[in-house]
Amino acid sequence: MFHDKVHLQHVVRQRAFSEKKQFKVVICNPTTWDVKCVTEGCTWRVHGHMPRMETNFITTIVQPHSCLLQTTLIKHKNMMAEFVANVTYNDIVEKVGMSPFRIMLAIQNRYGYEMSYDMAWRAKQLALEKRFGNYKDSYHNLPTLLATIQVRDPRTVIHIDDYINEKGDCFLK
After folding, report:
1. Which of 3, 7, 87, 100 is deepest in the core (most CB within 10 A)?
2. Are 2 and 67 within one domain?
3. Please, which residues have CB within 8 angstroms of residue 171's CB and are 6 or more apart in sequence?
4. Same domain, 45 and 58
5. pTM above threshold 0.70
6. Where in the sequence is the domain holding 65, given as residue range(s)?
7. Per the structure, how many domains does the chain have?
8. How far apart are CA 121 and CA 109, in angstroms?
9. Cα dihedral angle (47, 39, 20, 114), rounded to 10 degrees?
């Protein structure tokens, strides 16, 4: 059982990377996620669904691989920036200045796959956005942050104009 589809996808991807197998998505909708091995004739299949009146995803059909590993994979077609962001989240948040090259090296050391610089950069941005929010969130959090600064140092003088334009930008005086 998984509390949502994202966690089911994460576990299936991790297993596929460790087994050096690729999969393709057969069905993907809000209540169902069905995947199978890309190798012809392989019986591996995972079927996850959310039953009616339930909140958890359940995997009901899980078949083992019947295919053999024919070649060593250098790049995995199921590697995605969201997965890399989740796997390297703690490292990225602890070391905000971590370069995409370090992320690429971490994935290669952990799973043995190469990834592009662009994907590593996107993964870093996703992890930082998950931790700190996006740039629009920072505009909305600014008044609270400034009020906290003023509470900690009463000599601080801050005037925030109540005017917020249509882009959501706050103006300081």
Report:
1. 87
2. yes
3. 160, 161, 163, 164, 165
4. yes
5. no
6. 1-71
7. 3
8. 17
9. -110
